[in-house]
Amino acid sequence: MRKLLFTLFSLCCLTNAQASIITDFAWVGGTETNTANTTLSNGIEVTLTSSLVQFLADPGSPNFASIHDAGPGNTVITLTFSDVIQDLRLFVSDIDAGSESLSNLSIIPTAVDSVYSISGNDVLPNGNNSNGNIYWTGLNATSVSFTYERLSGLGISLDEMEITTAVQVPATLGLFLILTGACLRRRMLQAA
Questions:
Q1: Which domain, by its residues, includes 182?
Q2: How many CB atoms lie within 10 A of CB 34?
Q3: pTM reported for the whole predicted model
């Protein structure tokens, strides 16, 4: 009986309590817009917004969200999630040193690939046409935003993101309690 209870406890409470989803940005569509959203396979709704520059699925790479504009200036890019995200990995491509940066990040990343560096609240490219990941570990938030600063004629692409969410612990705990109760009841019936 103890082995059974230990096994049930292990299955219910000590299993991996996180779920990871990887998605590209094909869902932004082929029409220029400032807002696009999708629902991921785990039911989480994701919204991508930009304050100034419109984006669309890149015609040459339709799985990327292309953020390009003829004029210089800054635009705030925001990713919003309908549930708390534990970890986020965002692959950003085509950032040029000295001409472009991702600044004023609402939450400072925990790491970046070697093509980037973190300086305060900014992510800076270490060279031209930098392509790499930005990581937020232990994010525990429903949104991340940053300002994309650029000179005239430049643009970037959001290629892919991976989010990790926590599995609802109360459901797991409830299952454990139900199974424990059923085992104890069975034991009591056998003893009687």
A1: 1-17+168-192
A2: 13
A3: 0.77
Question: pLDDT tens across 24-39, in order?
Answer: 999 998 888 899 999 9
Q: Is the pLDDT of residue 90 over 90?
A: yes
One DSSP character per residue, 17-48 reads -EEEEEEESGGG-SS-BSEEEEE-TTS-EEEE
Q: Which two tokens stand for residue 174?
A: 């409830």
Residue 89 belongs to a domain with what CATH number? 2.60.120
Distance CA 74, CA 72 (A): 7
Nearest residue to 155 (alpha-carbon basis) of 67, 32, 34, 75? 67
Distance CA 124, CA 6 (A): 50
Cα angle: 139, vertex 145, 148; to 5 degrees? 135
Show the 3-state SS of 109-147: CCEECCCEEEECCEEEECCCCEEEEEEECCCCEEEEEEE
How many domains, the chain? 2
- Which two tokens mark 66? 């292309």
Task: For residue 179, give the DSSP letter.
Answer: H
Reported as a pLDDT band with limits 50, 70 and 90, residue 150 is confident
Q: pLDDT confidence of 142, banded at 50, 70, 90?
A: very high
